[in-house]
Amino acid sequence: EKAVNLKKDLAEMQEWMTQAEEEYLEKDFEYKSPEELENAVEEMKRAKEDVLQKEVRVKILKDNIKMLAAKVPSSGQDLATELNIVLENYQLLCNRIRGKCHTLEEVWSCWIELLQYLDLETAWLNNLEERVQMTENLPDKLDSVNDGLESLESVLRHPADNRTQIRELGQTLIDGGILDDIISEKLEAFNARYEELSHLAVSRQIALEQQLQTMRETDHMLQVLQENLVELDRQLTSYLTDRVDAFQMPQEAQ
């Protein structure tokens, strides 16, 4: 009777594993929204816990069959053969569910990481847009234009590492058919705004550099003229002090 009960337990265990495999491993999943992906991750976590909890039952079966084999070798031998098959199938099921759970967790982590990089770069784009707008109505002063240019250039010196991460993470998920529509839309919008603002900022930078160069040249010319006027004033004052007649002075002094 004990052998019959153990044989029945082995059959039930095998049936449960077949059902678990069909439910967790053979079902096709389509992850078209973050909610679907997150639900799949949670489901696989529960599946992993459920499968691992059966380890106690498997161990009890194994111990009982060993005890029966020690007492009734003939019955125990047949059950031991069936037990080995169940043990092999159980270990395979555990490994496969662990693997799928790990894969889904990695995919979810990849999605979260992509969102974090997009948030960082969006914040940078907002800052860049603000700096460009700040340089549109600068006072016509050398210091103001110079400060505006330096402020804009400091934002433009932003490293490209985050954008590389966004491209690689997005492509990895899209290649796997994970959230491909949502990610494609996000990347398209981000790249379009990045290209637009980058070109606008660079154009503004060039314009400010040219304006600054013109102002510096004008400032230099005014400085030279001022120095010449000071020298001329000094000479004229000297002539007047010495009561020199105008017709006796050089032509330029006259």
From TrEMBL:
Keywords, sorted A to Z: Coiled coil
Family matches, as InterPro entries: Spectrin/alpha-actinin, Spectrin_repeat
Keyword Coiled coil: yes
Record SMART domains: SPEC
Keyword Metal-binding: no
One Pfam match: Spectrin
Residue ranges that the Swiss-Prot or TrEMBL entry lists as coiled coil: 3-64, 208-242
Entries under SUPFAM superfamilies matching the protein: Spectrin repeat
Protein name: UTRO protein
Organism for this UniProt entry: Oceanites oceanicus
Lineage: Eukaryota, Metazoa, Chordata, Craniata, Vertebrata
